């Protein structure tokens, strides 16, 4: 089943209570630290074709949440995101296919291309007359590509924070009832 067999073209809102923009890093190379960014805006347009579709996201980096206040505060400093000078992270899609989404990811003023593996989870009408669609997207990036270089060597080899970061998006899109009725 393809996206275009089930989704009408249009502008979809992102349901923030059923969406996560997250990441995973290795801590001391033995454990995982998971984090998310609950404050963001997103524009998702489903076009007549995949080539006409687009995703644009702006994330408020101050909202970083790893369930550890000290770590979150450190991530906000110039050692990592430098939110005083670069308060947002953006993603602008440049190509969407049935199984991938490529775009420009900008962090700290540095823009690099990133390709996410994309999975269309499904679509369903909701009890309020709208339509919901689910997507998952995953990508591996190297944080040093965005000048996120702070680290500490640990005894016995390895480092405190992995260079490779896994980005993951669990997204629920919503077509408001009035737009769903017009489709």
What does this protein look like?
- This is YceI family protein.
- This protein has helices at 3-6, 69-76, 177-182, and strands at 10-14, 20-27, 31-36, 40-46, 54-60, 88-96, 100-107, 110-125, 131-142, 164-175.
- It has 183 residues and is mostly beta strands.
- It has a single domain (3-182), classed as Lipocalin, CATH 2.40.128.110.
- An eight-stranded antiparallel β-barrel has the order 1-4-5-6-7-8-9-10.
- The two termini are 19 Å apart.
What is the domain tally?
A: 1
The top level CATH class name: Mainly Beta
Helicity level = under 10%
CATH architecture verdict: Beta Barrel
N to C succession of SSEs: HEEEEEHEEEEEH
**CATH fold topology:** Lipocalin
Envelope shape: elongated
How would you summarize the topology of this molecule?
Blueprint: H1 3-6, E1 10-14, E2 20-27, E3 31-36, E4 40-46, E5 54-60, H2 69-76, E6 88-96, E7 100-107, E8 110-125, E9 131-142, E10 164-175, H3 177-182
Antiparallel strand pairs: 1-4, 1-10, 2-3, 2-10, 4-5, 5-6, 6-7, 7-8, 8-9, 9-10
Q: Keywords, please?
A:
183 residues, Lipocalin, eight-stranded antiparallel barrel, 3 helices, 10 strands, YceI family protein, TTHA0802/YceI-like_sf
Short description:
This protein has helices at 3-6, 69-76, 177-182; strands at residues 10-14, 20-27, 31-36, 40-46, 54-60, 88-96, 100-107, 110-125, 131-142, 164-175. It is mainly beta and 183 residues long.
């Amino acid at each position: 089943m393809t996206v275009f067999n089930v989704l009408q073209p249009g502008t979809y809102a992102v349901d923030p209570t059923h969406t996560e923009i997250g990441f995973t890093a290795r801590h001391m190379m033995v454990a995982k630290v998971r984090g998310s960014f609950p404050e963001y805006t997103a524009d998702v347009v489903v076009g007549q074709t995949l080539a006409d579709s687009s995703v644009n996201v702006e994330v408020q980096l101050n909202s970083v949440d790893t369930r550890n206040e000290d770590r979150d505060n450190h991530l906000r400093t110039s050692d990592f995101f430098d939110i005083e000078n670069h308060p947002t992270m953006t993603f602008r899609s440049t190509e969407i296919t049935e199984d991938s989404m490529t775009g420009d990811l900008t962090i700290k003023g540095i823009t690099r291309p990133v390709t996410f593996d994309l999975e269309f989870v499904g679509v369903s009408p909701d009890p309020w007359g709208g339509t919901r669609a689910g997507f998952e997207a995953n990508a591996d990036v190297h944080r040093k590509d965005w000048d996120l270089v702070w680290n500490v060597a640990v005894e016995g080899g390895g480092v405190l924070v992995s260079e490779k970061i896994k980005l993951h998006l669990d997204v629920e899109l919503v077509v408001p009832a009035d737009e769903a009725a017009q489709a």
